[in-house]
Each structure stands twice: as structure tokens, then as C-alpha cells.
Write a sequence for this structure.
């Protein structure tokens, strides 16, 4: 055993999460991720947030649009309250340790694990022979993102839970294969009323930036009129809101709007039903639209302010990358020692 493997490391709490720069950030990204990331800065834990451009290219991206989307996402992080003096914010491709550890994890993870991932099945669809190899290996890169910082907590929306569980499996297999407790077993943090914001057109489907219908989602770049119109036109059933949560069980669209309201108002669905139960949607939807506009308008306007100074965004990302390197590089070096790669310098 090398020196690096002899002592069981104590893992201090560290948060890591990431978002793909693939355009059209949605209310789902905001409530399920961005807003929670900013709040975690107040919990006295080290926080590291990433723009995962290497994940984005698992499907083809127009180069100019990728650059634009990367800076837009950086602006969104900042507009949602991420403070680069308290958190590390950077884009993945600037820290090669992610790709280096991902390769090692490609050799630890099993093909069967990858093929079981629901996101792989959804995205590759029937034409999986034609999907990129990167799309299949995607969760191993995600495991590397997390474990290259020995992160212990991973705030995500419901749809990423399976990938964080796979990260735990990769960590456990590595530790077992090399007989050392080197990697932590990170916890997914999935909390609040909006861990799975659904489409405004179909309450059984996730709100997604890739949905062909723009009316299905609220984008962080939508103006007040667009937000109000999308909520007004959101699909619902003809019944008024029920008087208890039980009454939302078979009503996915109504439940979704109640959950969105609760998340925006920082309260619980129970409290929303206590206040609005019995109301028709003609009364509830305008209240929800006002809340959403009051919440999102300042973010949209801050985003465009940040985007007015691209060189400052690039400076923040570069500074974050330097700080990320300092944590990740020694962990990759130790990983190489553990698996028997010669280090001459
Ligand atoms: P991505 O870019 O699809 O989404 C970013 C974050 O937003 C959450 N989210 C939602 N939450 C609630 N309701 C929705 N409708 C909704 N849509 C998206 C996602 O759960 C996610 O938290 N693979 C990841 C990015 C990633 C990552 C990581 C995350 C790469 N490496 C390491 C955590 C740790 C992804 O594609 O997320």
C-alpha cells in the first residue's frame, strides 16, 4: 500500500453540483438547483459549483452557442446569489482533473451500470448505436466531477438522483478494488417543494430546456408578460383547488402549480392549500404569475447586467478554475498512486 492509502481519510463536508450550459435555463433549474445552491453558501460548508461544458458536448453543440450558454449560465449563477468569494464557480473544461479521473472511472464502472441509467435510455432512445460514446459514459464523468473534490453533499433535482447513486457505486467499487477508503460516498440532497418541476403543458413530464414547446416551460430569460401568459395558459383541470393535499393526488397539473407556488414562496404545499384551497384557477393562476414575476424579474435583469461585462465573467470563471485545480490536482495524483501509475515528477 502506498502512503496515500494507509490512513482512512476523514471527509470534511463539501458541496459540489453542476449544470449543463445547453441554453434555455428553466424554472426547474432555478428551483431544483440554482436557488438551493446559493442558499447552501449560508450553511458554513465549502461550496463548489460547475458549468459542465464537457457534459454538454455529449450531444453536438454549436461552438458559438456553447460559449454564449456558458457565459449565460455563469451570469445566472451570479444573478441567483452565488458569491464567488464564498463559492468556487468555474467551467469544467478548464480543470483537466475532471477528465483525468473520469477516464479512471470509465475503467471502474461497468457497461451494465451505464446502460441501466434512465437518462441514457431517454436520450439515446431507439437509435443508441448512433449515440456518442460520451453520452453512455456521461455518469462516470459526473462521478469524477463530484469525487475529484471528495465532495460529500450533492444538491440536485430528482432527475439526477440515479446518477448520484451511481457515483456512490463507483466510489465503493474503487475503494473495494484497491482496498482503501479513498473516496467518500456522497449524499444527494433533494429537498423542498420543487425537486421535480413539471411541464406546464403536461403534468406528467418534467419541465425541460429541450422540450420543443416553449409554452411548456418558464425560461429565466422570459419577460414578465411571457411568464404571466405561460402561467395563464398552463394546462389544468376544471375543478377548483382542493381543500387538502390528498385532493391533489390524481391531479398532476394542479399539484405542479401548487408545488411551484410553494417553492417560490418558500413555504410548503400544505400552507399553499390552506391559503388558496377552494379557489378556481382563474384566481390562483394570477396570484402565481405575480409571485413568479416578482421572483424572476430581478434575476433576469441582473443576468443581463452581468452579461454586459463578459471579461468580468471570464475572470470569475478563471479564478474559480485556479481554486478548483488546487483541490482536484492532489486528489487525482493520489488516485494515480493508488492504482500504480508511476509519478516521476
Ligand atoms: P442539468 O443541467 O440537466 O440540470 C441542472 C440541475 O437542475 C435540476 N433540474 C430540475 N430540478 C427540478 N425540476 C426540473 N424540472 C429540473 N430540471 C433540471 C437538475 O436535477 C440538476 O440538479 N448531469 C447534470 C449536471 C451535472 C452534475 C454533476 C450535477 C454534471 N456533473 C455533478 C451534480 C453533480 C445535469 O445534466 O443537470
Amino acid at each position: 500500500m502506498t502512503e496515500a492509502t494507509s490512513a482512512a481519510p476523514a471527509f470534511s463536508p463539501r458541496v459540489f453540483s453542476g449544470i449543463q450550459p445547453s441554453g434555455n435555463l428553466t424554472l426547474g433549474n432555478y428551483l431544483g438547483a440554482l436557488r438551493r445552491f446559493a442558499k447552501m453558501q449560508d450553511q458554513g460548508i465549502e461550496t463548489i459549483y460547475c458549468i459542465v461544458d464537457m457534459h454538454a458536448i455529449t450531444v453536438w453543440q454549436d461552438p458559438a452557442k456553447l460559449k454564449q450558454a456558458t457565459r449565460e449560465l455563469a451570469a445566472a449563477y451570479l444573478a441567483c446569489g452565488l458569491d464567488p468569494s464564498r463559492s468556487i464557480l468555474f467551467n469544467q473544461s478548464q480543470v483537466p482533473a475532471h477528465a483525468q479521473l473520469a477516464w479512471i472511472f470509465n475503467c471502474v464502472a461497468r457497461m451494465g451500470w451505464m446502460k441501466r441509467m434512465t437518462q441514457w435510455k431517454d436520450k439515446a432512445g431507439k437509435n443508441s448505436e448512433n449515440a456518442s460514446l460520451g453520452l453512455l459514459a456521461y455518469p462516470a464523468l459526473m462521478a469524477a466531477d463530484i469525487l475529484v473534490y471528495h465532495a460529500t453533499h450533492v444538491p440536485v433535482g430528482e432527475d439526477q438522483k440515479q446518477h448520484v447513486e451511481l457515483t456512490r457505486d463507483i466510489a465503493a467499487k474503487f475503494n473495494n478494488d484497491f482496498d482503501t477508503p479513498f473516496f467518500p460516498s456522497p449524499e444527494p440532497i433533494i429537498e423542498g417543494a420543487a425537486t421535480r418541476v413539471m411541464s406546464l403543458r403536461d403534468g406528467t413530464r418534467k419541465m425541460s430546456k429541450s422540450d420543443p414547446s416553449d409554452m411548456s416551460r418558464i425560461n429565466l430569460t422570459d419577460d414578465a408578460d411571457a411568464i404571466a401568459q405561460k402561467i395563464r395558459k398552463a394546462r389544468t383541470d376544471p375543478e377548483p383547488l382542493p381543500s387538502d393535499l390528498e385532493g391533489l393526488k390524481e391531479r398532476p397539473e394542479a399539484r405542479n402549480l401548487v408545488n411551484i407556488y410553494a417553492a417560490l414562496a418558500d413555504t410548503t404545499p400544505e400552507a399553499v392549500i390552506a391559503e388558496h384551497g377552494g379557489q378556481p384557477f382563474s384566481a390562483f393562476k394570477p396570484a402565481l404569475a405575480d409571485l413568479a414575476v416578482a421572483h424572476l424579474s430581478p434575476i433576469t435583469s441582473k443576468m443581463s447586467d452581468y452579461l454586459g461585462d463578459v471579461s468580468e465573467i471570464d475572470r470569475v470563471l478563471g479564478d474559480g478554475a485556479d481554486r478548483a485545480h488546487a483541490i482536484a490536482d492532489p486528489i487525482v495524483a493520489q488516485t494515480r498512486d493508488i492504482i500504480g501509475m508511476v509519478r516521476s515528477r
Q: What stands out?
A: DSSP finds 14 helices and five strands in the chain. The radius of gyration is 21 Å.
